[in-house]
Amino acid sequence: MSTVTIGLMCSFLAGMSTTLGAVPIFFTKKISHKYLDGLLGFAAGVMLAATCFSLIIPSINYGGGDLKAVLITSAGIMTGGIMLDLIDKYAPHEHMLFQNKKEGNSSSLSKVWLFIIAITIHNFPEGLAVGVGFGTNNISDGLSLALGIGLQNIPEGLAVALALKRENYSNKQAFLISMLTGIVEPIGGVIGIVLSSISKPLLPFILALAAGAMLFVISDEIIPETHEHGYERIATYGLLIGFVIMMILDVTLG
């Protein structure tokens, strides 16, 4: 199979791992914030390590490893962060994981659709990162990214399903919606692969752009959500464990 085909398959599987995370809602009525904060901290750690070792360092290396390469990577990181910030400001959406919080322009869409848009904004950079990883034609780099994103999507899938349960959706509805939120990642994967394939000279910038978008999500969304109920120390250790595991995976596979 071509690198593109493998990349599409891996980005799809990474996105669908949200489905695996949602399975526990069929077997338990409630999961403590303490447990969930630790899991989401783990997800943040995996994303952070993937950003550093699978996106930022390759961006600098592909750019030549000199000061010019660092500046290009820096510009890409800032562009990715600003891009996510603008989408977050203007796309109507609502966060329901720990507290109801509407953002973006006003909309007549139902609450669940606003929540799905919020998760879509959150998940798109992850798919983009996986696609860009495979767009380098280095399958091992792409695989480590896809595996890491898949790992961190498991606790996110659980968090999404629990948020929907709190809004009185049935187990089946919460499970299906959680599964659907992962579909955006293959879309981001396609865009990442296409962008990387069109222009190799732009590859360092595109890698860094995906990194900046991921960093924005980590800092603006995941970490604040894990510090809402007094379990920030547990979430921090979860982040450290996730970072170390992803670092090991990246060195082993990359």
UniProtKB/TrEMBL annotation:
The answer to whether UniProt assigns keyword Cell membrane to this entry is yes
Membrane topology term reads:
Multi-pass membrane protein
PANTHER family recorded: ZINC TRANSPORTER ZIP11, ZINC/IRON TRANSPORTER
Record field: transmembrane:
6-27, 39-57, 69-87, 108-125, 176-196, 202-222, 234-253
In terms of InterPro entries, this protein maps to: ZIP
Q: Where in the cell is it found?
A: Cell membrane
Q: What is its main location?
A: membrane
Question: Family per UniProt?
Answer: Belongs to the ZIP transporter (TC 2.A.5) family.
- Keywords in alphabetical order, please: Cell membrane, Membrane, Transmembrane, Transmembrane helix, Zinc
Q: What is this protein called?
A: ZIP family metal transporter
Claim: Transmembrane is one of the keywords in the record: yes
Concerning Pfam families, the annotation shows: Zip
